[in-house]
Amino acid sequence: MSDSTPVVVATTGVKTSAIRLVLAHPLYRASTLALFLSGLGISAAAPLIASFLVTELGASLPVAGLFYLTNLAAPVAGYLVGARSDRTGRRLGLFRICAFAGFAGWIGIAFSTELWMPFVISFVVLGFAGAATSQLFAAVHDEITAHPTGSDDGVVAIVRMALTAGWVIGPVVGSFLAAYSGLRVMFVAVAVATLAQIVPLGRLRGTPPSAHEHATRSKSSPTFRAMLPLFAFTALYICVYAGESVKYAYLPIYMNEQLRLAPALSGAIIGIQPLVELALIPLAVIVARRTGMTRLMALAAACGVAANICFATTGTPLGLFAGQILMGAVWGVFAALGIIVAQRLLPAAVATASAIFLSSTAISSAIGGLAGGFGVAAIGLPLVFLIPAGFAAIAVIGLLAMTRIVR
Fold first, then answer.
1. What count of other Cβ atoms lies within 10 Å of the Cβ of residue 60?
2. pLDDT digits (tens, 9 = 90+) for 253-275
3. C-beta separation of 250 from 384 below 8 A
4. Closest to 358 measured CA to CA, from 185, 241, 222, 186
5. What gap in Å lies between CA 5 and CA 27, rounded to an integer?
6. Angstrom distance (rounded) from CA 119 to CA 67
7. Which of 99, 85, 270 is nearest to 168 (CA)?
8. Which residues contact 56 (CB under 8 A, 6 or more apart)?
9. What is the pLDDT of residue 103?
10. Taking a C-beta distance cutoff of 8 angstroms, is the pair 35, 20 a contact?
């Protein structure tokens, strides 16, 4: 079989299971492994970059916190890469370039000797590295469009689960490496994991776009009006995701300093969310076939409202467990369905849609960080969690209004 030969899994009138499709298809299988490595690397580095800036390069805590603002370059870089991908159809070629940029960026950070260097590297280089993920999802979409089956949404959900699984394992691996080998060695390992994304894909070239899609891409970039539904959906996603910045910044402080929970109990509360999320991703696809995707996402956003109310009002371990389980439901649904809805809202430019949607987390993190900072100064802990509850309530209303658009 040549590198560009498409693989068709015969269905013979019977819906093939998504797991079987992923295991049998080279692109789906390789994308799953690559996204696991991507999640593993990014999540290993993210919690420790501030510590690196403080302990290795002498940054103050406020300056270290400003590092995360460099992520705001990611949406711009993602859009540029996505637009280029939609014009050329070279998904996997651009993916490899972005993955190599990630490798170079993390190596540069690992060997930084001046405080300004990680800031510049993150802003200029790592913004483009983040676009690698969107290119894989666009490549998977092209293959699904060319050879549809009855389990296409399930395939996307399984591929997305691999990214989540990497995020579950990555912080543990990163903390272990940093403790036993140092932060610089850990960042080198992150660079290796980022470059290793290329390995599962080998020499695969992906599925060429159909003649109609290629003609649509070649005419022009999508108009602003055509992109409005995608922008609206992404804005609602940002409202939901902003709560994560508030939660991860202040929930550990609340548990440790005010509730004075045992470290093991606090860790269990934090760790329950990703486990629930992983379990619910495949279930979300099944339920969405009956309820509709945006309607189910509105219900998930409502779970986000309830979760943050639990954080703000219960003051007990049981209430915090309930909140984290509800947040697992939120992200189980959004992880499974978000990228699918985004691509359907801009079908003529799926790489652009993927890049805009996936890179929006940088904006939501910045908004959540600012809202949380001002909120905790104004109303304190734990009432600050009412702010992300309000953001999630906006998302509930907006997603219900979008149901007709997505249909």
1. 11
2. 888 888 988 888 888 888 888 88
3. yes
4. 241
5. 11
6. 6
7. 270
8. 112, 183, 184
9. 97
10. no
> What are the DSSP calls for 230-285, one per residue?
HHHHHHHHHHHHHHHHHHHHHHHHIIIIIS---HHHHHHHHHHHHHHHHHHHHHHH
**Six token digits for residue 163:** 């990214």
CA distance 151 to 378: 49
Task: Please report how the helices 73-88 and 350-378 are oriented relative to each other, as an axis angle in degrees rounded to 10.
Answer: 170
329 within 8 A of 335, measured Cβ to Cβ: no
Nearest CA to 225 out of 348, 336, 332 is that of 348
What does each C-alpha distance from 351 to 134, 139, 257 come to in angstroms? 6, 8, 44
* Token pair belonging to 266: 């606090």
Give the chain's length.
407
Is the four-CA dihedral 340, 346, 347, 351 of positive or negative sign?
negative
Q: What is the pTM of this model?
A: 0.83
- pLDDT band per the 50, 70, 90 thresholds, residue 407: low
Tens-digit pLDDT profile for residues 279-333 = 999 899 999 989 999 999 999 999 999 999 999 999 999 999 999 999 999 999 9
Helices 183-196 & 26-45 angle (0-180, nearest 10): 160
Q: Which of 345, 343, 273 is nearest to 303 (CA)?
A: 273
391/31 Cα distance (integer angstroms): 33
Strands (E), 49-128: none
What whole-number distance in Å separates Cα of residue 62 and Cα of residue 52?
Answer: 14
Q: What kind and span of H or E run contains 370?
A: helix 350-378
Look up residue 228 and give its amino acid. Answer: L
Distance CA 266, CA 263 (A): 5
Query: How far is CA 306 from each of CA 35, 247, 309, 391, rounded to the nearest angstrom?
Result: 31, 14, 5, 12
| Cα dihedral across residues 340, 342, 345, 348: positive or negative | negative
Average pLDDT over residues 213-224: 62
Residue-level pLDDT at 18: 84
355 vs 357: CA distance, rounded Å: 6
Please enumerate in sequence order all residues whose Cβ is within 8 A of that of 199, keeping only pairs 6 or more positions apart, or say none: none
